[in-house]
Amino acid sequence: MRSTARRTAAVLGAVALLATACAVEDDGDGETAEDGGTEEPGGDTGEIAFDVGVTEEPCPDAVNPDNGCIYLGVLSDLSEGPFAPVAVPITAGQEAFWARVNEDGGIGGFDVDIATYTRDTLYDPQQHSARYREIEPNILALAQTLGTPTTEAILSDMDADNVIGAPASWWSGWAFDDSDQGLILESGYSYCIESQVGLDWFAANVSEPATVLAVGYPGDYGGDSAAGVEHWAEANGAEYAGFVETAPNTIVGSQDAAVSAVMESGADAVVLAVGPAETGEIIGKTVVSGFGGQFLGSVPTWNPALLESAAADAILATYTNIAPWEGIDGTSAAHDAIRESLDGGNPENDGYIFGWVWSYPIKAALEAAAANGDLTREGLRSVVDGLEVDYEGALPAATFGADTNENAIRQAVINRPDEEGTLGVSTIEAEVTGETAEAYDYTSACS
Amino acid sequence: MIGTAILQRRDRVRGRPLLYTSYAADQAILNTPAKRWWTAVLMIVVLALPFLLSRDLTSLMMTVFIYAIGGIGLNLVTGYAGQVSLGHAFFMGLGAYTAAVLGGAETDRVLGFGLDMAIWLPMAGIVPALVGLAVAPLAARVRGLYLAILTLGLVFIGEHVFKEARPITGGAGVGRSPAEPVLFGMDLHGTYHAFGYILPRDAMLYFVCLLIFVVLAVAARNLARSKLGRAFSAVRDRDIAAAVMGVPLQRTKTLAFAISSFYAGIAGALLVVVIGQMTPANWDLFLSIQFLAVILIGGIATISGSIMGAAFVVLMPRLVSELAGSVPFISTAPGSGFLTVFHVQTMLFGALIVLFLVLEPRGLYGLWVRVRNYWKAWPFSY
Amino acid sequence: MAELISSGLVRGLGIGSTYALLAVGFVIIYRATSVVNFAQPALMILGAYFTSVFISSAGLPFAVAVVAAMLVMAAIGLATERIALRPMVGRPPFAAAMVTVGVFITLYVVAHRLIGSRVRAIRDPWGLEPVDLLGVTVAQIDLAKIVISLTAIAVVGLFLARSRLGLAMRATSLDQEVALAQGVNVGRMFGLAWAISGALAALAGALIGTVAGGFEASLALVALKALPVIIIGGLDSIKGAVIAGLFVGVAEALTRTYQPRYADWLGANFDVAVPYVIMIVVLMIRPYGLFGTREVERV
Lengths: 447, 382, 299
Known about the structure:
The complex is a heterotrimer of chains A (447), B (382) and C (299).
Chain A (H helix, E strand, L loop, with lengths): L1 H17 L5 H16 L14 E2 L12 E9 L7 H20 L6 E11 L4 H11 L5 E6 L1 H14 L3 E4 L8 H4 L10 H15 L5 E6 L5 H15 L2 E7 L3 H4 L3 H10 L3 E5 L2 H13 L5 E4 L14 H7 E5 L9 H10 L8 H8 L1 H12 L5 H6 L5 E2 L8 E2 L4 H4 L4 E6 L7 E8 L2 H5 L8
Parallel strand pairs in A: 2-3, 2-4, 4-5, 6-7, 6-8, 8-9, 9-10
Antiparallel strand pairs in A: 1-2, 10-13, 11-12, 13-14
Helix pairs in contact in A: 1-2, 3-13, 3-14, 4-5, 7-8, 10-11, 11-12
Chain B lengths: L1 H10 L11 H5 L5 H20 L2 H26 L7 H16 L13 H23 L4 H21 L1 H4 L12 E2 L2 E2 L5 E2 L2 E2 L4 H22 L2 H11 L1 H6 L4 H27 L9 H14 L4 H22 L16 H19 L3 H15 L5
Antiparallel strand pairs in B: 1-2, 3-4
Chain C lengths: L1 H32 L6 H17 L5 H24 L7 H23 L14 E4 L2 E4 H23 L1 H11 L1 H6 L4 H23 L17 H8 L4 H25 L11 H12 L14
Antiparallel strand pairs in C: 1-2
Helix pairs in contact in C: 1-5, 1-8, 1-9, 1-10, 2-3, 2-4, 2-8, 3-8, 5-6, 5-8, 6-8, 9-10, 9-11
């Protein structure tokens, strides 16, 4: 009896897949009435309409074999692209996040699967768009799309397909509909708010900097951060010593140019938006040459192994890390769950926590759509405007919607390197906000 | 091409398909009945593909055509004229940015004039061709590996210029969106009705890419059997001997570079239309190497080889990723196990290039010739 | 003046000497087999990785660890030649070069997997310590790079010039068939060239990997800077590779220090393009590099 029902459902599912364009809602209802009503007492699948990327069949290796399955895609950098060192833990963190969701019973009678449609795109827009088109017919949404240019490459397709996604970057553009079509559900601050909160905290707790300098990679990362530094300097009457544009060591070989620019600037506070190896080199070389200022580093500047490098002493003395949320030693319910998922082990770096926290908005959207009884792509997209996301304390509850200036998250966590900390840092102040960042008129992308 | 095909029909001797009674018939592009048949069948299949394949495979096929255009361009300068170039990525980038400025949308970050594809597409070839003309005199002075790395210099210097020319390229990091494929007012990204069918999304773009590809491939094939094409081969085989015979070396090499750059520019402009976004870092050494792989794997100095090579380079990663899933004992979850399926995919791609070049020196074209000759002589072994 | 010496000349010579190491590796393989070895970046980063592992996990002293890593990479170089390159003997050099690209892709994945998600540091004895050199403060590591690299290159040079094997290698690069007729095992010479080149790449990796903040797998691509170096020096000249390597290193260091100050309009990170600009200028004057052998043209 059960196997026949399944087979019918499979056939119907296949038909539904072939004819995605037409009569979507009838299809979904027809299937669920047959199976869901009798066998899933707790689940309310019966009333939920769905089509692409959602099946009545359980996920492969399902935690709850009685549930249906929601397929989410992951487009990341998993073998030899430039961001593989952080993208691999990010993806592992997301796997753990959704495994926990499934263990808690799934969403609206469905488990969530991200492994089946995880693809390696090497941070290359060409691979990214080809792989997106490959998995698009089988997924409901994207659990991760890594990188700014890569995501921009698939955005018009996502718009036409009504696919929403969670980014793996903190570019300011994701907060605005004209650069993300309302499809990208970002978490936490953007780099340009980050540098402002960091400097606000620095001015209040360390010393009021007379000269500030930005060092970073041009574009979505360093460019954003530098825009924040420039605005902060203007608002607080400090001197803006400029934006030193550098590039990863894989391109320039060494950060000597940035080092001499930092030495020359005589800045009191330098905001870094580079990679971890580059951070270590800039701090190590400037401090040894007698630079007297302090460094504020953006989230991705940190890697626990920096404390084993030649620059360790200089880093311990002069470096402060700004992060959107607490690290592995954090105190919120979300952090308890993260540690539980690791079974007492440690992740390789903070990417694991990024991946975990970045997943909350998609989960909230799925739950909202399931509650509306509409797990189609259109249904999912329609809940984004005004969506409330609960981060289990990792971040304050966020609201997605048109008014970014009102809804944007403007708080950060301040970490200092610490040999005792699990991932080499310990938090010295959480939920930091600052006057400049609060007052910033956030109405368009910073870079 | 059409002229020679007609000529050929008149010159044909009944029942002796391989007897040629004129030079033109012997040199015709489709000089055997088998070639004519297969070309016709292939064209029909290719025209039907967007209706048979899913959208992602259609866009992969589009990428194959575009890589074939670029590969043919590189084969003209490297395969036919013997001037090894690693600068192909630079010329592709130049074409793509020319197209994007002329045909792209203006934003507060980047320039864009929003012109029609009928304007931006030819310009995307002409501008790189002019730049190719300008650098050719220098390139003609050196040869072999010196030339390869000299042209690689173009890629590195070009990448630097692209990064700095922000109003044109959007700078490093975010980059910019490509030209809009609007041909004579018709948006090729749109969905259209034809003969009672709803054409799949991007099908129009597919047909236009196919058309451009066919035109450029036939043009290249004709070029290769023209006076200029023979001059190319003479320069490749022994440039001093060619000069002694009265082939103008400088002019021949310069023309080879300019024509190759034209093809590269067109390929670059179309490629980003399919991708959707470009950053200066996309036009790097590895793109140049990919195109060198296209012609080496496909077959040096053959047009059909370039097409097969393009299919290999574009389709193989996809095929490999399907294969890698069936390799036992590897993990599909990133961050666990020694090698994940993603590592295996990338390594397999590398290993396949090695394996292929080791086993089949003349490329896919050579493989095809061997298969063809086997069946021609069948059931005899030779 | 102090700045010119410390962050210009000494730093430049330090970086340049590592370019020279890599370039000599390229030249040795090129002379033996006429192939440009695009796998060199992967060999370099794996060398840096093994050095770092031998120091941090096995607790070996720096010098021992470097030599051990050089041996490992020599073995990997040898194996690569035997498996992937030997079948390409007699084929067009560019097909063989493409084979090395395939090898690079494969080994680069291995490097990524081994290095993983953490920055790796080579705990070298010099770190960031400065030293007083004739009244100017320079970094110890820069001097160490110069001394170690030039010593290693001198050893290779001596080996090629004085030993029987070196003589056989030079004979092979002059004319393979004649060498064969004289009883030289040409295949073994190819393997030896790859082994030496792998060891030099490992040494370069160990020195480049001492960068203060540690290294990631992507640092491998720095080895491509040796490409303009070998062209400037002349493809088949070891002397040329050394001189051009040092020259390019100094030119880069000077650009990094002074270009942002005096020629800002050239844009950020112009030093990346500088080796290629120098290369183009050199080729305009000398089409076979500074010390390369002019090809004899016969009809």
